[in-house]
Amino acid sequence: MWIHNETSVNEFILLGFTSHPTLQRILLTLCLAIYLITLFGNSLIIFLVWVDSRLHTGMYFFIANLSFLDIFGTQIIFPQMLFHMASRTSNISFNRCMAQLNLMLFCGMTECFILALMAYDRYVAICQPLRYPTIMRMQVCIQMAGACWLGGFFNAAALTVVTINFPFCGPNRINHFFCEEPAVLQLACMDTYIVKVLIFALSVIVLMLPFTFIVISYIHIARVVFSMHSATGRQRAFSTCATHLTVVTLYYSTISFTYLQPQSERAAEQEKKASIFYILFSPMLNPVIYSLRNKDVKGALFKVMGKVS
Crossing angle, helix 138-164 and helix 193-203, to 10 degrees? Predict the structure, then answer.
């Protein structure tokens, strides 16, 4: 691998959203509100799944995993971003940047795997309802979730090791609001074609294979649902799948735009805008999507509120 020489940069400058002071203050307020809502909403989901025995099933276990990932990813990005906006500084050390890059890759990859597991859970619940308690017992769910976390960790580690060994000798201005892999690679002092091919290959594996698994699962689900004679049964089945499909659509439509297209200066600006949705808005909206469309979650919330009052 390549070794950093004496001219290697020891810090980067994150260009963020804008340098306009008034817009900076508006964005600071907006991002702080998103941050607090995200933390509260996802923490509430985890708490409800923990305390209500009716939510101790595979589906809600995976939802709690998704909420934990959203909280973790938010903690990686928001505190530093808010500090940069408030202090009007944008420096980040090389090591901190690489750590942020690694952790965000880890969160993103793990979330892709978790979303695929959630589709499998819905497949078993609708297509094999009598076997659901056996197939999706909690011990199996924990093992599958653990495999997702490990898969995300090792894939992220592989990309980070390759990236951290590239020479960065200037410029050091990252056209982004955090250290994301494609944006950081734009600053490498040598040809990054090989690592870009590696990123694309891993993106196909990590993004498209789980997505393909999700599509296949829902094809089987649709076939079973449309064969149901009861309109109530069809409506209930579609309702349980709608929340997951909404989250999958929001997440994949934006993250695929970043990692499954050729890199260019124009694309870099578009990727920064696209990442706003899966970094800022998706973690905030996930608890709202699950709670507003889910009777069990709302029931658990009313139950807890009743005990408190």
Answer: 170
Q: Give the global pTM.
A: 0.87
Q: What are the helix (H) ranges across 204-230?
A: 209-226
Per residue of the chain (309 residues), give pLDDT as tens.
Answer: 444 444 477 889 988 887 777 888 888 899 999 999 999 999 999 999 999 888 888 889 999 999 999 999 999 999 999 988 888 788 999 999 999 999 999 998 999 999 999 999 999 988 888 999 999 999 999 999 999 999 999 989 988 888 888 888 878 888 888 898 888 888 888 776 777 777 777 777 778 888 899 999 999 988 888 887 777 777 777 777 888 888 888 888 777 777 766 555 546 667 777 788 888 888 988 888 877 667 778 888 888 777 665
Q: Helix, strand, or coil here: 14?
A: strand
Terminal alpha carbon distance of the chain: 61
The closest alpha carbon to 179, from 198, 159, 194, belongs to 159
DSSP 240: H
Contact (Cβ atoms closer than 8 angstroms) between residue 71 and residue 47: no
Domains of the chain with bracketed CATH: 11-296 (1.20.1070.10)
Query: Alpha helix locations (H) across 52-137?
Result: 58-87, 94-127, 132-135
